[in-house]
Design goal:
Shape: globular
Largest sheet: 8 strands, mixed
Strand order of the largest sheet: 12-11-10-13-14-15-16-17
Number of helices: 29
């Protein structure tokens, strides 16, 4: 795991090389191996300096998340960290110079290893990134990052890096003081070795006391001061006051990790480094054992990794390499999908009913690219090359040679059937036809196709060029080969796929709709609209349900409800939301944000605000529910509907359910996803809460038999 060698000049190289893995990670085995090698180098009088390097393409990717997900023993974690801190402090204080040669990406625990070295030199590698991403998984740097980074960079700069989880380039890391030098790739070890020899030579000259010199970290030297001032300086106090306020506004108190990071820095910067490391350890152990961290590691890392690796892709189907696709419809959604495909290097034929409409769709990309060029994020020639890959047209014959055509026209069955037939007349027999519909069943749309085995649903989210999720919907006749190839396309354009079976509303639209619907039900019951939307935000959702209904359009909510009622007939179960949406649209003419009037007013010269007329049409009842009660209803209804999707076979896995919710409609990651929420609560507690709500609010909250069966069996959704 650690290759150890000492050269003729007395420089010991400790080279990280974890067998069977593409990247080095910190776990119990690698940490023990590094400790053994480091102690050997420190104890050997022939060793004049220590070089830490990597045999992989990157330095160290960070901690082993599988180990952290399983960790529960606070004392064991604390003891292990103390040994790790003791090793790092020995490297820093024994006197021998220690340098890190950073050939590639250096993140999290890997950067903490580097910070324990006296000198850090990075390769000029455009792909390399440096930072502390732990906060994005509900954690904090636990190997000294919260103590060493502020002492190197200053409090404010370090907090921005620590609390935001940003990954910066080598040049920025150099400017901010995280590293000492950037050299041409391939020369970083030579540069680190040259510095070590220079330091060793200096240390060999006795000082005034007659003793050899020592290489020390800045904070171990006499007179050290934190760059930019300490905690109790005016700048320091302002940083923490503003930071606390901004943090509260951003997280609503749902994410303990950034708060703990602030506490680590605030407390640690007022004491010596050893005490600061002890403080960091306590906060780190607390976070590792928290449900928020377990949920975020499980869903944002492991489940996301499964989805991105196409874990549910049918086997034995050759990987499809896409070069040219067609896009039917050049509205905002079609234009966004076209941009995403062109950005991935694909040729895109963008077809609309008029040339003007098609050109407008291409202009959408042009505007996006202009902004990137203006910000220095893209070179003008690269932007022009991307734009040249989009061909606007009205001629279906231009679809010839496309491996896939994606339809994103209006949600009208007759229109979709017409464009399907015209497209299939122009494309190869093995080409895929995909519909971007968000609600219409794929099996029904495939009836217009002469090759239903090649027909599939690809539900993108708006704005399509930004949103990371694609919901892949299987029709009854969709072939496994078509699914596999569709998943290859989603990966090719850098999106994350989940796979669901055909049903009305599929998964994401169906469960997302329950959040809006429950918000409207609360409104009809006389719950104050401000309480409803504040509860939505405090629950962790991006916006409240009423504001979100305005965003997606109350008119659309009403149309979907009317169409569903028409299609299902006597089987349709009326909802309070249907009555609220009908009143708002049909009687009051308040369609949502697009019309400037919905649950909110949207004045041109001021912030949006709740429509005062809501009080007349939905008078507030006496005795308002508590904030916690409203949050419970808004969140539990989503989990219940997700379980129903699993029971009905709409969802193919609970993992896809959680990934789809987080990426698709902004479900709070700290809850883990709709299924993660049940797992965290415990199935028995969840069922008890839902039974109580069913008695209070209606049968929509009645839990399914599959959940009661889990209680009887003593089983749960996830092993950890």
């Amino acid at each position: 795991m650690i290759n150890y060698a000492v050269d003729k000049d007395g420089i010991a190289t400790l080279e990280w090389d974890l067998p069977g893995r593409s990247q080095n990670v910190l776990n119990e085995q690698t940490m023990a191996a590094f400790a053994e090698a480091a102690q050997k180098a420190l104890a050997d009088p022939a060793v004049k300096g220590i070089l830490v390097a990597s045999a992989k393409a990157d330095f160290i990717a960070g901690g082993d998340l599988d180990m952290l997900l399983k960790a529960t023993d606070a004392q064991a974690m604390s003891d292990n960290l103390k040994l790790w801190h003791r090793l790092f402090r020995a490297l820093e204080t024994t006197g021998k110079p220690v340098a890190a040669a950073l050939n590639g990406t250096t993140l999290g625990g890997g950067l903490e290893v580097a910070l324990a070295c006296h000198y850090r030199v990075a390769a000029d590698n455009p792909k390399a990134r440096f930072g502390f991403p732990e906060v994005t998984l509900g954690l904090l740097p636990g190997a000294g990052g919260t103590q060493r980074a502020p002492r190197l960079m200053g409090i404010q700069a370090a907090l921005m890096l620590l609390t935001e989880g940003k990954r910066i380039k080598a040049a920025d890391a150099l400017k901010q003081g995280l590293i000492h030098a950037v050299v041409p790739a391939g020369t970083e070890r030579d540069a680190a070795r040259a510095w070590l020899l220079e330091q060793a030579a200096k240390n060999a000259v006795p000082g005034r006391d007659g003793k050899p010199g020592k290489t020390l970290q800045p904070w171990d030297q006499k007179g050290f001061k934190i760059p930019g001032g300490g905690v109790m300086t005016p700048g320091g106090m302002q940083t923490f006051m503003a930071g606390n306020a901004m943090l509260r506004e951003k997280t609503q108190g749902n994410y303990p990790a950034p708060k703990h990071i602030l506490s680590c820095v605030f407390e640690g910067m007022q004491t010596d480094i050893d005490t600061g490391l002890a403080i960091e350890t306590r906060y780190f152990v607390n976070l590792v054992r928290s449900p928020e961290a377990k949920n975020m590691i499980r869903s944002l890392f492991f489940f996301m990794q499964e989805a991105n690796k196409l874990a549910r892709r049918p086997k034995d189907v050759p990987v499809q390499k896409f070069t040219k696709i067609g896009m039917l419809g050049a509205g905002m959604m079609g234009a966004g999908i076209a941009h995403a495909a062109a950005a991935a290097g694909l040729e895109v034929v963008l077809l609309d009913s008029t040339q003007e409409g098609a050109e407008k769709g291409k202009a959408y990309s042009a505007k996006l690219l202009e902004k990137r060029v203006a910000r220095g994020q893209m070179k003008p020639e690269a932007a022009q090359a991307l734009l040249a890959r989009i061909k606007p047209t009205t001629d279906y014959r231009d679809f010839a040679g496309c491996e896939m055509v994606i339809e994103a026209v209006f949600e009208d069955r007759a229109l979709k059937a017409d464009v399907t037939k015209k497209t299939e007349a122009a494309i190869a027999a093995d080409a895929i036809f995909a519909s971007n519909t968000s609600t219409l069943p794929i099996t029904g749309l495939a009836e217009a196709s002469s090759r239903p085995a090649n027909f599939i649903g690809l539900h993108f989210f708006s704005p399509a060029e930004k949103m990371p999720l694609v919901e892949i919907i299987l029709g009854k006749q969709t072939s496994p080969a078509t699914l596999a190839r569709a998943m290859d396309f989603v990966r090719a354009i850098g999106k994350t796929p989940i796979v669901v079976n055909d049903a009305r509303g599929f998964y994401t639209s169906r469960v997302f709709g329950t959040y809006l619907s429950e918000g409207m039900a609360l409104l009809q019951e006389g719950v104050a609209p401000a309480l409803i939307d504040n509860a939505g935000r405090i629950s962790g959702m991006p916006v409240g349900p009423l504001a979100l209904a305005d965003e997606v359009s109350i008119e659309l909510v009403h149309k979907i409800a009317s169409q569903t009622k028409k299609d299902l007939g006597d089987k349709y179960v009326p909802r309070a939301a249907d009555q609220v949406a009908a009143l708002m649209v049909d009687k009051l003419g308040r369609l949502g944000k697009k019309s400037g009037h919905g649950f909110y007013e949207y004045p041109a010269d001021a912030k949006k605000h709740l429509w005062p007329g809501l009080a007349e049409h939905f008078p507030a009842r006496t005795g308002q529910p508590s904030l916690e009660e409203v949050v419970e209803r808004l969140m539990l209804i989503q989990s219940l509907e997700t379980v129903r999707c699993l029971d009905e076979g709409v969802l193919t896995s609970p993992q896809d359910a959680d990934v789809g919710a987080i990426l698709g409609w902004g479900y709070p990651p700290f809850r883990g996803g709709p299924i993660g929420q049940i797992h965290t609560m415990g199935v028995a507690n969840f069922v008890a809460a839902c039974d109580r709500l069913a008695e209070q609010c209606g049968e929509r909250f009645r839990p399914s038999e599959s959940l009661r069966k889990k209680i009887a069996e003593g089983s749960q959704f996830f092993p950890i």
